[in-house]
Amino acid sequence: MHHQDAPRTADEARRRIESLLDEVADLSDLTIAPDVFYGQVLDRLTFATSALGAAVWTKSPNGHLLLAHQTDLLQCYPTGQAAKALSDDESHLFQVFHRGEADVVPGSQNVQPKYDIVVVPLQVAGEAWGVMALYQPANLAKSVRQTYVRITHAFAEVSQHYQQQTLLRDFQQHQYDWKRQLAFAGLVHADLSYEKTAYRIANEARNCLEADRVAVLSARGSKCRIEAISGVDKPHRRSNTVQKLERLASVVISSKQTLLYTGDTENLPPQVEEALLEYLEETPSKVLAIVPLQNIEAVEDDEEKKPRRDSDPVGALAIESIDQLNGHELLHRAEPIVRHATTALGNARAYHQLPLASLLIPLGNFLATIGWYRLPTTLKIVIPLAAIIVALFFIPMDFSIEVHGQLVPEVERNVFAPSDGYVEEIFIKHGQRVEKDTRLMQLRSNEFNLQRAEIVGQLQTAQAELDAILVKRSQGMRRDPRAENRTPESFENLSADQLKLTKQIENLIERRDLLQKREDELELLSPIDGQVLDWEVERILAARPVRRGELLMKVADVDGPWILDLELPDKRTYHVVNAQSESNEPLVVRFQLVNEPGKTYHGKLTTAASIVDLEENSEEPFVPLEAEIDQVEIPHLRHGLSVVGRVECGQRSVAYVWTYQLVETARRYLFW
Known about the structure:
This protein is α+β, with helices and mostly antiparallel strands. The strands form six sheets. It has a six-stranded antiparallel beta barrel. Strands 2-1-5-4-3 form a five-stranded antiparallel beta sheet, with helices on both faces. The termini are far apart.
């Protein structure tokens, strides 16, 4: 502002001052920045009083006065002496500020020429917030100083009016923002639906912040996923804009720092800058803020407060504006929005992840209706516990008994040693397919050889004796029957000897034939068409002595049907027998292969033995069971493949299924 003509008379000077006051009064009703307003006021005050300069000092948060606005103070605070002069003047001004009455105080003694300061406290709503200072040459007449005090006081009143109007506008804006934030909080906390909460956060935050677009993203580990975008019913997840925003938000959340872009990408981490530049290719936004939605928990103990600990982010809020807004002011206004959004989205996610969430709220409403919350704590524990225990006796549950066993072919034959001996020759190998009557191995018996030699010797001796008797008889019959040396006794003796030897020879021949048959049995043949199951047959049996009845090998029809050979513990037989008698259908057997855990197969129980068996390698007595299976479902069938299964025995109460083993054990040890 420039005023070239100085007033010539007192009236003209008064009118000029009144005109200047009217000008600043008009300015005080306008919505302008404090720097602009106080610059105009101080220029006019300096001109009206022909002062060295003027300033407005404001109260700082720590209680001191700070030089906030000034004009033409280079003479009072020359370079090199400004710091000392400011410190001296601040102490004098603070005394006037503290008293609350206008006064004239000397300026710093370290500056030439000397000057005095006309000080008028500034107040709004009865509270001092600063002083207006007018710098005049020292040693002015008392009347002049009083005039300057009145003029400064008049300009101070206009400044106070401006400050009051500014404060009122701020209050109005705060009230407006507060109402919108209150409405925002009410809407986002109205529901625990995750999708609805995200949608409401996006749209209501856009209205509150007067931004062009707001997006809500959820944090899933190190990745982000857009849940809602303001003004859009459902985000198009395959679009480049959505994918690049998700990538940018993921990088920002990993750093746990708010990103504010207002046109400058300097001082950003490389990974954030790269993702930001990619996203800016898809959007015309000039202001972009991505704020992690992160709860901040204060950790305290009895002795001292520890620093706050940040929890994992639940998501992020992306705020965009096409207009060049004040980014820092936008973040400041977004602070309460972010707090409410963090809480609402976190609660909705916790509810969304809660099992049986759809049942818990109706249950809570029912408990409130019956006055549950007015009951004593003891009853609140006893009643649910009793209800759960009673329910356990009525809620049905599948009841099954564990069994162990193996898969075997239904047709299986054992090959035993028919006599004592040794293995002379083996004709087959492990896993070899054989047909019925195929030679498996050849046995030899030294005992049979000795018996054969003995029988042959006896047979030859008896035959020789028989031949001699036949010769004697033929010679005797050719003689005269009336010869003197022939007696009836000798003739009869030869006949008896002949009959005896004939019978002896027949017995020896029969023994020889029987021995030959037993020797023929030493050639072991396959009893069925099948496969040899024994491992390393030649190494184990070659030249090995064997005893009669000893098991030498197994042959099974692996191409035929297979069965499940199970062992049911004898102490659990009662449950299976009862279930079988109550059911018209065979009991179902669920089993898993030990080499394929996690995959369940099914079979049907066909046979239950009426005996109890106990093998050497068995820990307790068991009852053999057989179950038929669908062998097509089971790949790579192998003889003896171990299985762990359960025989389905119908349904029993939950309490029975959970406690029957404990009850049986208690009965066994307490009552037996």
